[in-house]
Amino acid sequence: MRSDMLLKLDTEQENANTWDIDTCSTVDILYKINEEDQKVAQIVKEQIPNIAKIVDAAYRSIQNGGRIIYVGAGTSGRLGILDASECPPTYGVSSELVQGMIAGGREAIFKAKEGAEDSKELGRADLIKRELKPDDMVIGLAASGRTPYVIGALEYANEIGAETGSVCCVNNGEISKYARYAVEAVTGPEVVTGSTRMKAGTAQKLVLNMISTSVMIRYGKVFHNYMVDVQPTNQKLELRANRIIQTLAEVDEEEAQRLFLQSDKEVKTAIVMGLGAVHKEQAKQALEKSHGHITRAVQFLKEET
Question: Is 86 a catalytic site residue?
Answer without folding.
Answer: yes
